[in-house]
Amino acid sequence: CNKLDAAxxxxxxxxxxxxxTIKSKSYQSVLQAIINGMTNPEExxxxxxxxxxxxxxxxxxxxxxxxLFSETDITIFRQTKEFIDTIERQIEECQKELTALCxxxxxxQYRRIQTIPGVKERAATAIIAETGVDMKMFATAACxxxxxxxxxxxxxxxxxxxxxxxxxxxxxxxxxxxEIAWVASRTRNCFFSNxxxxxxxxxxxxxxxxxxxxxxxxxVALWHMLSKEEDFIDIYLKRLEQQKLMEANxxxxxxxxx
Length: 258
Prior knowledge:
The structure is a single chain. Helices cover 67% and strands 3% of the residues. The chain has 258 residues and is mostly helical. It folds into 2 domains: 2-90; 134-241, no CATH class. α7 (107-113) packs across α8 (121-131) and α10 (171-185) crosses α12. It is extended. It starts with a helix and ends with a helix.
């Protein structure tokens, strides 16, 4: 996708500077129109979403979709887009096959992993593909964390920290866990979002470092869930329920005393 956008920008096309992503509906509609031979800026600007036009102005959007497109350029755009569509279709087919295999051979573990906040179908299949479901391969949760490469680096000399980077490990699993951490930190009423708020807003810590910490906590929880065959238990919600129960008991006790 980035190569396709770079080829468009060489022709003076700058719409990617004004939309959230090059996979957006507006960008793809304008791109398809250019591939079909339409290069009139007035017509191309009409395909851009109204919010984008209102935010940046019609003149800017019109200038952004203007460009000098030769027949050779349009051919390159069409071939590149067909290549991208083929790859995306193959990825989708592989994902469907992987999901079917997980549901057939590991249905309980597949369901259990999705009880973690931020984990859905794609993330659950990726985790099973990388770690498997048998945690006997990892003696402790720390072993799994170290194998993934999320363990903090112990690089201290004379009281000075030379590096706080994580260790090397399975970078594919680490990338998935970091993405899950971002989603979990934005999920309302869960332990990870509360932890992220306290660490970043109250204690003023780096948001990126906190995401790594959340990913580590998710991996530790995953090890315990698969080892003990238990669903995810949200400590934050459990504490809230206990507080509500205590408040209800206090109110009932006060009413009895009154």
